[in-house]
Specification:
The protein has about 280 residues and is mostly helical. It has one domain. It is built from twelve helices and no strands. The radius of gyration is 26 Å and the shape is elongated. The two termini are about 30 Å apart.
Amino acid sequence: MNVLVGILVVFGSVAGGFTLLGGNLLALWQPFELVVIGGAAFGAFCISNPIKVIKAAAASLPALLKGSKYKKSLYMDALALVYDLLAKARKEGMMSLEADVEEPDKSPIFEKYPVIAHDHHAVEFLTDYLRFMVSGSIKNAFELENLMDVELDTHHEEGAQPASALSRVADGLPGFGIVAAVLGIVITMGALDGPAKEIGHHVASALVGTFLGILLAYGLIGPVATSVEHLARDEAQFFKVIKTALLASQQGYSPQIAVEFGRKAIFSTERPSFRELEEHVKRK
């Protein structure tokens, strides 16, 4: 929602200020300039990125309109799920988690947390490392942490690609604006023998090309790239919370203390209090 508000403020401020200064908004409506700038930028985006990055960038845009899903309620559900799994393992033994790990879609514990259960990446991350803990193939918490770090670093690099690709588009937009302006000047040179009004129209169109390139770069695509980067950061932090709780359990801490370790890894803006998390776990 804040993305839409920001876009409206940016374009509203520019259009409003231009109008208040006595400008005519219709003078800024140059669709062919947009074709040159937007088409060239999109073509360069396709040239410079593999199809997987293009798809990832396109998939990230709808998420901007919804906002980050990593809110306090999601963190509380994730930690409550981890607590239930660890509590079962402590009470019945680690082998009791084998069915939950191998078939999470049939697990009564996962069914209690449908939002988490429908997050394929979160379920896969959680079950993969619980599988190691159940099998006992990795007994050392430091070895488990190293493996987690490898996966999270890879995930972070992959998640940063869409934002980086969009950021490069933003960097190139002022240049494409200049291209559109130069083309406008070329057209103007061919109309020098025409009336002054026609020449002025062509010059104004050319200048609008430069204006649009800069505005789209710093008022739209650049901020969108930064927002996509923030979404990727929030996702990475979510996995870090799960990682911290699992590692604390692997080091021998009780489920209550393990989820407290995880709670401390949550950003302060989403972090529940100790009492909030305790009550949520009990309710579940």
